[in-house]
């Protein structure tokens, strides 16, 4: 099957073994319970401070319905709704590449449920990839204390199987086979930029 770069999809395990991904290291840092969003925000700020990348969490558009003023100089939103479905969680620029990705956390050990990803998110990531950007999902398995960068090319195969009622989740073994393990560190917590470099090389992407 051909994907946005015009090449047949090959899993990471089928590609050149000369570029092994860094092994995810289990770090016993104080914030073991830190959520994926917080870890990514800290990592992105670390990258920004060093001029390595400009990647931010996207704001979710809301429509304010009701505002209370408990104090004269302070407003409090008491009712609001989402104006539209959000696309993905993060976007930005890295080495001239447009980067757009979703962040997903799970407490499962053996799989990730595909109903936690929405159709419009997959369509958005596919469109970004077709336009020449880099799209992927960063998974955080909280019980394993492991994080992975999962390319859109692999996710599209899962999504097709999900729509055909052939699969309801992504087996963890498949994530191990096709994703890039993200090294866990103190600074940054999730050092995923080197994995983007490897993703670019493995899939033959170019500007």
Describe the structure.
Its EC number is 3.1.21.10. Its cofactor is Mg(2+). Keywords: Cytoplasm, DNA damage, DNA recombination, DNA repair, Endonuclease, Hydrolase, Magnesium, Metal-binding, Nuclease. The record marks 104 as: Transition state stabilizer. The chain is an alpha+beta fold and 207 residues long. It has one domain: 3-Layer(aba) Sandwich (Trna Endonuclease, Chain: A, domain 1). It contains five helices and eleven strands, in the order H-E-E-E-E-E-E-H-E-E-H-E-H-E-E-H. The chain has helices spanning 36-49, 119-130, 152-163, 172-178, 193-202, and strands at residues 54-57, 62-71, 74-82, 90-94, 97-106, 111-113, 134-141, 146-151, 169-171, 180-184, 190-191. The strands form three sheets. It has a seven-stranded mixed sheet. Strand 2 (62-71) and strand 3 form a beta hairpin. Residues 16-33 have low confidence and may be disordered.
SSE blueprint and pairings:
Elements: H1 36-49, E1 54-57, E2 62-71, E3 74-82, E4 90-94, E5 97-106, E6 111-113, H2 119-130, E7 134-141, E8 146-151, H3 152-163, E9 169-171, H4 172-178, E10 180-184, E11 190-191, H5 193-202
Parallel strand pairs: 5-7
Antiparallel strand pairs: 1-4, 2-3, 4-5, 6-9, 7-8, 8-10, 10-11
Helix pairs in contact: 2-3
Protein name: Holliday junction resolvase RecU
GO cellular component, one term: cytoplasm
EC number: 3.1.21.10
